[in-house]
Structures are given as C-alpha cells and as structure tokens.
Design a protein that fits this description.
The complex is a heterodimer. Chain A is of the alpha/beta class. Helices cover 35% and strands 23% of the residues of chain A. In chain A, the strands form two sheets. A six-stranded mixed sheet of chain A has the order 6-7-8-3-9-10, sandwiched between helices. A four-stranded antiparallel sheet of chain A has the order 2-1-4-5, covered by helices on one side. In chain A, helix 4 (117-130) packs across helix 5 (146-158). The radius of gyration of chain A is 19 Å and the shape is globular. The N and C termini of chain A lie far apart (50 Å). Helices cover 77% and strands 0% of the residues of chain B. The model of chain B has no long low-confidence stretch (mean pLDDT 87).
Chain lengths: 262, 275
C-alpha cells in the first residue's frame, strides 16, 4: 500500500537556526504514530510540514500521493486540495470564535468541498455526536470548556472526511481533568482505523494507542519503534533522560544544581 | 514572635486607610464645589440668558432642526458607506503582496490623513469639476465623495490594524481546512477584524458626523442645509448671540450619543471579538 506520509531528508531552518536536520519518516495507512520529545525538539514543526503550515527548506515531502515539497523543483501543487484531505487539531483549539459550534463544522464543508447546507449540517451533526457534543451545536465556542472546544475542533476536522489527522499537542492547553475526554475520542478514532500523526506529552496515550513512537531531540529522530520499546525500554540515553523527566518529574535532577543523594 | 509579626513594618500615619480614603473623597468633592461656586458667582446670568441660551431664538430655530439633522445624517451615512468601501480596499492593498499596491495605499492614506478635510471638500466641490469637466449636481454625492475620501484614510488604517489583530491560529485553522487565502480573508479574517475594530469604527462615524459641518463650503440651497449651516444662519440673524451654535451643538449630541450606545450594544452582542 502507498504511504500516507513519506518524508526524505527533510530540513527546516529559520535563518541560521536549523530546527529539523534531516528527517526520514513514513506513515502507512491506518497507522498511529506519536511524536514525543522535549520542547524545541522540532516535533511540532515536523507536523506542520505535513500540511505545509511550515514550508520545508529542503527534502522531499509526499502526502496522500501528492509531492508537496521536493529538492529538484518547486512543486506547483494545489496545497488547499491536500489540506482539505488532511485534518489538523491545534493545541489552542482555534475554533472560529465568530461562529457557532455547528457553523465551525459546516463552513469548510460548504466553502471548500461545495456540500449543500443540509448535507454539511447532517455530517457535522454526526461528527459532533461522535465526540459526545451532539447537543451543543448552537453554542458559541467561548461557552464551552477547553476539553469541549478541543472535541469540537476534532469534529470540525472529521467533518471534512480526512484521510489523515494531525494532532499538535491536543491536550497541552487543557485542565488535567478534561484531558481524558479528548484522549478517549482520539483513541476511538485510532481504533476505527484513522491514520494519525500525534505530537503529545501524554505518555500513557502513546503507550496504549500508538503503533509507533518517535522520540525527537535537536531536530532529529533519536529513537523510533513500537511504543512498548521506546517508552518502556528505551535504548538511547537521551530518550531515557527525557522519559525520566516526564514520568517522574519530582525526582528529576535540576540542571545546574548539585544533587546530594541519588 | 507574635508581637513582631503583628507590629507594623512601617510607622503608621495618623489615619487608618479607611479614614484616608474618606478624606481623599471629601477633598475631591470640596474642589468640585468650590469650582462650581466660583463659576456661578462670576458668570453674568443676564447676558448668558440673552446671548447664549436665548429661549426665544432657540424656539424660532426648532422647525428647521429636523430636516437639518436628517441632512446631516444622510451626508454622514453616504460618506461613511463610501469611506468604508474604500477603506476596506485600501486596507487590503496595504497588506497586498504586490508592492505597488502597498505604495499606492500608503500614499493615499498619508495624503488624505495629512491635509485638512476642508481642502478636500473644496477640491471635490470646485477643482475636480474644472479639471475633469464633470458636473456633480447632488450635494449629497459631493459631500459623500469628499468626506468619504477623507474618512477612507482613517478607516483603512483601523481595518488594517483589525486584520492584523486577528489571532494567527484562526487563519491557520482556516487554511488547514483547505480554504484559499481569499476564502480565509472573507470567511474568517474580515468578520473577526470588524468585531475587533467596532469601537474605533464608532469613533470614525462620530468624527464623520461632525465633519459634515464642512458641506456649507459647497454652497447649499435651503433644503440641503445641515445642522451647522442652520446654526451659522442663526448666528448671523442678529438676535440671540451665540444661541444658535448651542442649539445645533445639542442637536449633534442627539445624534452622536445614541451612536455610542448602539456601538456598546453591538459590542456586547458580538462578545467583543475573539478570545
């Protein structure tokens, strides 16, 4: 089967600062891949290169059969067409604040896919029910909790019938007790066979749901493999250090501070 | 231990905080009262009632006010419609990727923001007809063109600021759903920008209302009189002194204060822009 995402030697720099230093990544249909790593490691940038919210500096990126970045030539492709088939969920939800929940889920269906209003509303309603918010269609985004807003954002993306879903730290802006709602929606989505690329700090989610976990640091993929290996039995020292900091933060050695007993 | 905890770190003054707050309020009211008394004692009430608030003259003006107020509102609305349309175009030009558009828009904005509105009204009223051989008969059209051009310069800058204040995440969300840049601008950016600029836009409208006082320069027939022209005529009538100006001043307030209320109501209703 053809890969959903395939990246070869992807590099991204801002001026002199290289954020991604040669990434090779293939995601197959139905696969759930989690990207973990410290902040500044380039995992969000990598994710945003998939739907070209960030433009790769060099390297090849092919998404759903469309080459959107290439070294040989600047591909003159319709990125909007690719984006319409790739759902994206942001850390800050980014619901359209001037529209109701239902309008958030119908606007792109109508303006991009050209669906009729009744069709769009039916599909939006189905997806709102899928994320457990079927009764909140008339609400304004700001009337919802963070967890609800993020689930609406997922419904909005799903309403476009995407073939790939990108999640950029979807639970990082949520209160702890609301994280679970969003993660269970994402788990169901994974179980239904959606291809997903997820940047996350939720190690439990990565361990339980991901087919493959990639640990990134300093703009490269340091370690990758099945969740059971990368999270439970990491081979690389950097991975081990990172996981200790995330999973056992109260016993993390503080940088620059002499620690007495350990 | 307890005694050191309770003892103040700084030596207290004579009054407690509550007493000082009461004293401060008392002083402020006192100043207000003194100023009011001075004004009341020094003003010449006899002359004021005959020259500034002459009821007889005011009553004589009253029948002219409704049509003059209506004219003022009509000039304002047409000028605002044109100013808004031009302003949106100019704001988009200033943000265009075509450098020439940015230069043209910047030039237009700097020019018309920098010269007195009076000059523009004169130019549209007299210079343009001479230069291009066109005759604009309607006073409303002339007023709308002149004042619309002036206000477009201010409105363009307001809208540009509003567009740039729309959170980047909103635009990224629209683009990630497959919307083109134009579609994103129309569906997401502009509607949100308008919410953000609602308060300053009310200012533009109120400023414009007052700027319509310049239409007298175009030479008005009696049916086209705006509020200021009515006031000026009353001023020249010989009796009542400055009363006419105070009457039209009040009439302007009757127009502009409700606008302020309307804007605040709209702001509440739309929830004041994005998060």
């Amino acid at each position: 089967m053809n890969a959903v995402i395939s990246m070869t030697n992807l590099r991204k720099s801002y001026g002199d600062l290289e954020v991604l230093s040669g990434i090779d990544l293939t995601v197959s249909p139905g696969e759930v891949v989690c990207l973990i790593g410290p902040s500044g490691s380039g995992k969000s940038t990598l994710l945003r290169c998939v739907n070209q919210l960030e433009q790769a500096t060099s390297g090849t990126v092919t998404v759903l059969g469309q080459t959107i970045a290439s070294d040989d030539h600047e591909p003159d492709i319709d990125i909007d067409d690719v984006r319409a088939r790739v759902g994206m969920v942001f850390q800050q939800f980014n619901l359209f604040s001037h529209m109701t929940v239902l309008e958030n889920c119908t606007i792109a269906q109508r303006k991009v896919l050209g669906r009729s209003k009744p069709d769009a509303e039916r599909i939006a309603q189905e997806n709102l029910e899928r994320v457990g918010l079927g009764d909140r269609g008339d609400a304004n985004p700001r009337q919802l909790s963070g967890g609800q807003q993020q689930r609406v954002a997922i419904a909005r993306a799903l309403s476009m019938d995407p073939q790939l879903m990108l999640f950029d730290e979807p639970t990082s802006a949520l209160d702890p007790e609301l994280v679970g709602d969003v993660l269970s929606v994402m788990r169901e989505l994974a179980e239904q066979g959606m291809t997903m690329l997820v940047v996350t700090h939720e190690m439990a989610f990565a361990r339980d749901v991901a087919d493959r976990v990639l640990f990134m640091d300093g703009g490269v993929i340091v370690e990758e493999g099945p969740a059971s290996q990368v999270i439970s039995n990491p081979q690389e020292e950097r991975t081990r250090q990172f996981l200790q900091r995330v999973l056992d933060p109260t016993h993390t050695p503080v940088a620059g501070k002499e620690h007495k007993d350990s | 231990m307890t005694s050191t905890l309770n003892s103040p770190t700084r030596r207290r003054k004579k009054f407690t905080p509550r007493q000082r707050a009461a004293l401060s309020r008392g002083v402020q009211y006192g100043i207000l009262l003194v100023v009011a008394v001075i004004i009341a004692l020094t003003a010449d009430w006899q002359r004021i009632s005959s020259n500034l608030f002459n009821v007889e003259v005011a009553l004589r003006m009253l029948p002219q006010l409704p049509s003059a107020a209506l004219n003022t509102i009509i000039y304002t609305l047409f000028a605002f419609a044109l100013g808004l349309a031009l302003g949106i175009i100019l704001a988009l030009m200033r943000l265009s990727s075509v450098a020439l558009y940015r230069w043209i828009a910047t030039l237009w904005i700097e020019f018309f923001r920098g010269i007195p509105a009076l000059l523009v009204v004169f130019t549209v009223g007299f210079a343009v007809p001479i230069a291009f051989g066109v005759r604009i008969d309607s006073i409303t059209a002339k007023a709308a063109i002149a004042l619309g051009i002036v206000s477009s310069a201010y409105i363009a800058e307001t809208i540009r600021a509003g567009i740039q204040a729309v959170p980047a995440g909103q635009i990224e969300a629209a683009r990630s759903l497959g919307m083109s840049p134009t579609r994103t601008m129309l569906t997401v950016t502009l509607p949100q920008a308008f919410r953000i600029v609602l308060p300053p836009m009310t200012n533009e409208l109120i400023l414009l209302t007052k700027d319509t006082s310049l239409v007298y320069l175009l030479g008005l027939s009696a049916s086209a009189y705006d509020l200021t022209k009515v006031g000026r005529d009353a001023l020249n009538s010989g009796t009542g002194g400055l009363t006419g100006l105070f009457v039209v001043g009040a009439a302007y307030l009757c127009i502009t204060i409700p606008l302020g209320f309307l804007a605040r109501w709209l702001e509440r209703r739309t929830g004041g822009g994005s998060r």
